[in-house]
Write a structure and sequence with these properties.
The chain is of the alpha/beta class. It contains 13 helices and 13 strands. A six-stranded mixed beta sheet has the order 4-5-13-10-11-12, with helices on both faces. Strands 8-7-6-9 form a four-stranded parallel beta sheet, sandwiched between helices. Helix 2 packs across helix 6, helix 3 runs parallel beside helix 4 and helix 8 packs across helix 10. It starts with a strand and ends with a helix. Bound molecules: pyridoxal-5'-phosphate (PLP) and zinc ion. Pyridoxal-5'-phosphate binds next to helix 8.
């Protein structure tokens, strides 16, 4: 079981008891979980365990295994992307981390599952989230399994199917007439005043821990070798930051070699790319995008909570930041589908489009081991691509007519 030593401020390093708290009293910095990891962890510690992310339970912030709320998320396929690699110009060691096959069809089952488990452990009476779409269902599904009420705060204009999915799990859905940042602000105040564990706000220290399993799994699936380069989509930046933390922990535990040569690319959609803009301007200031405009709605966070920390990670890890337009995103979705048989939502299209750009610009070596994170399922956002798909008109079920159509 994960033994939490404290919550520590990412800025001033002040340590706190692991209570219901998420910002530093001194400097308002975010708090991170600090552990006493057991000393007997080896590569083979995990091998024979259940094939979900709770196989790493010693490294996650839940003290008592009975409090784990699991839908068997994680341990998703790391698929060799041979056909995509050829299509992109002869990449030989391309891997796709296919996190679109989680129980609610996005990587958000990782952070939501950990936060809801922690809510159960700390006996909170309700949970919720501010969501760009996918977190809503991930939180609602885990809340259903934990028999906790769940409150979703999300923009009213996200994909209908994501709303339908979240409502099906029994959540209360507050459809905010505004942006994600508006929903986030409301959720933050309501969460604190009503004692609701908002997984990505007042439970954020625990929430972010779930996503570091995206690093653990990739390392284990590569036989504990460190890849050369990671392509990661960025909304709030929590996932990118957590993946870096995950690799650092594995190195500190002696499970992987040095990570100083690891390269990280942050991928954002044009129309909501505040981190990419800051990186390209070599600025330390992430200027919020007031009205995000992109088909990649799950990345439409104008004021990314971890934006500054993504910038720091990029500087630390030979980083690159790049954006993709709506058309490039759609191309990315279709290339991935047609070469690898994987259907992703626009966030995944952003990863592929940015990967393609970097290869074209010679920023990725053809021999590099590249892992591209595909974080959400295409079935959740079909309206993004219908306009470019062939229009069908129904034909009579007559063999001659149909036969004439098939060349
Ligand atoms: C939320 C989300 C992201 C971005 O994660 P952050 O932690 O907000 O950076 C990426 N892809 C998908 C599919 C998402 O739902
Ligand atoms: Zn502080």
């Amino acid at each position: 079981m994960g033994i939490i030593q404290s919550l520590q401020c990412r800025e001033c390093r002040k340590e706190y008891e692991p209570r219901f708290r998420y910002v530093c009293e001194e400097c308002f910095g975010p708090l991170d979980v600090i552990y006493n990891f057991p000393s007997n962890i080896r590569k083979n510690t995990f091998e024979s365990r259940e094939k979900n992310y709770w196989r790493y339970f010693e490294l996650l912030p839940i003290a008592d295994k009975n409090n784990i709320v699991s839908l068997n998320a994680g341990f998703t396929p790391l698929q060799q992307g041979n056909r995509l690699g050829i299509r992109l110009g002869g990449m030989k060691n391309l891997f796709i981390k296919n996190d679109s096959v989680n129980p609610t069809f996005s990587f958000k089952d990782r952070p939501a599952g950990v936060a809801v488990s922690r809510a159960k452990e700390t006996k909170l009476k309700a949970v919720g989230c501010a969501s760009t779409g996918n977190l809503a269902s991930a939180t609602a599904a885990h809340a259903a399994k934990a028999a906790l009420p769940c409150y979703i705060f999300a923009p009213s204009d996200i994909e209908n199917i994501k709303i339908a999915q979240a409502l099906s799990y029994g959540a209360e859905y507050v459809a905010v007439d505004g942006t994600y940042d508006d929903a986030n602000r409301v959720a933050s105040v309501i969460g604190d005043s009503k004692g609701i564990g908002i997984v990505n706000i007042n439970m954020r220290p625990y929430y972010v821990e779930g996503s570091k399993t995206l690093a653990y799994e990739v390392a284990e699936q590569l036989n504990w070798h460190v890849p050369d380069h990671l392509i990661i989509p960025v909304g709030s930046g929590a996932m990118l930051n957590a993946i870096c933390k995950g690799f650092e922990e594995l190195h500190n535990l002696g499970l992987i070699d040095s990570i100083t040569n690891l390269k990280i690319t942050a991928a954002q959609p044009h129309g909501c790319a505040p981190v990419v803009d800051a990186f390209k301007k070599k600025s330390d200031e992430v200027i919020p995008v007031e009205k995000p405009e992109t088909i990649a709605k799950s990345l439409a966070i104008g004021d990314p909570g971890d934006g500054l920390y993504v910038l720091r990670r990029l500087r630390q890890y030979n980083g690159i930041a790049e954006e993709a337009t709506n058309n490039e995103i759609i191309d990315g979705i279709l290339i991935l589908a047609k070469t690898e048989g994987l259907f992703t939502e626009p966030a995944g299209g952003v990863s592929i489009a940015v990967l393609q750009k970097l290869v074209e610009e010679g920023k990725i070596d053809r021999d590099e081991t590249v892992v591209c994170y595909i974080t959400g399922n295409g079935l959740k956002a079909t309206e993004a691509i219908t306009s470019v798909l062939p229009k069908l008109s129904a034909v009579k079920p007559d063999v001659q007519t149909v036969s004439a159509m098939i060349r």
